[in-house]
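User: Can you help me understand a structure? I only have the sequence.
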Amino acid sequence: MGLLDVFHAFSPPGDSFVWLHSMAILVGGFLFAMVWLPNRIAQSRLASTLSTVVAIVAIIFGVSTSAFPDTLPSMINEGIFTTAANVINIVSGLFFLLAAVYFVIRYRSDHSIEDFLFANFCLLNGWVGLLFPLSQLWDADWWFWHLLRLIAYFTVISYMFITFQRSEVELKQHREHLEELVQMRTV
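Assistant: Let's start by predicting it. Here is the structure, written out as tokens:
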């Protein structure tokens, strides 16, 4: 999703711009909706390679649509999204909302901060996917939807970085404690 958004940021306005936005939401929504998969399927080799395959396809799609925007079918018709664009964005939004339901259920049972964070991320992107096509009808500025997604990205990345730093410090403290116990036992 992030890779497609990078290409989306540098693509010229027009068909390629809308295609990249729609595909970014669709890919992200699909991957997040996979949280409903049973554990035995989610831990299979096929499921573990899916994210790599999606990243490769996203890079190829992003490069091709940014470099050759004329090769895409039209997704904008006289300033209004075509039916294909509307369907892609709505399905993507539903994928994200489906994943949000899963994270809300998990948060209610575990009260995990990660589940709360991902529930909000999915809700935000779900509403972006559902309401983005309507922005053409409202003559609304597109920057608002991109700002929401950017906030979601930075929130998740910041939280992951802080959690990683905290885990590293805790691991170091546990290691030092174990070394002390080993020394005491040796003595």
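Now, to help you interpret it: The helical segments are 2-10, 15-33, 39-42, 45-67, 83-110, 113-138, 143-186. Residues 38 and 44 are 10 Å apart (CA to CA). Let me know which part you'd like to focus on.
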